[in-house]
Amino acid sequence: MMARAGLNAERLTAAAAELADEIGFANVTVSELARRFGVKDASLYSHIRNLQDLRTRVALYALRDLADRLTDATAGKAGKDALAAFGGAYRAFMVRHPGRYAASQTPLDPEAVAGSEAVQRVFRTTYALVTAYGLREPDATDAVRLLRSTFQGFAGIEAAGQFGHPRPAGESWNKIIDALDCALRHWQVSP
User: Which domains does the chain have, with CATH numbers?
Assistant: First the structure.
């Protein structure tokens, strides 16, 4: 049955990421994944070690996906154009892939992070965005935290359908990008 299903770690990881988007990352289990393939749980253990291994693989898969989207969106752009493209890619990823986004926010073993090119690309792309505004440490970290908090908060509320006002969310989003651009251009630099 394993050969017929064509199971391997990559296929299981991709399927678990899809499953996370459908049922929530916290609800992904080895049993749920095995059901998706019509196999017994034991069939998966020759490809993954355990549930934690599967969740780490999904988190790294999600981070690769996010890194690709952020770097593609910002390539060749600077300033407000880069900020809008970055924010748009972040927002779209979070809204369209809530399970993957949740996985990407999971604390990972430092060894997994150190060996992940995707994690480093997310960091590099994010910090490049704020350093292009002339920000250096510790201001760059503060600015990254501002952007991440804003994007995550907005997209989380949007994904939950909790904007209970007739004004289109996209119009508010554009105002937020304008405000963030202004804040980054006029940042009070730390001494």
Answer: 58-185 (1.10.357.10)
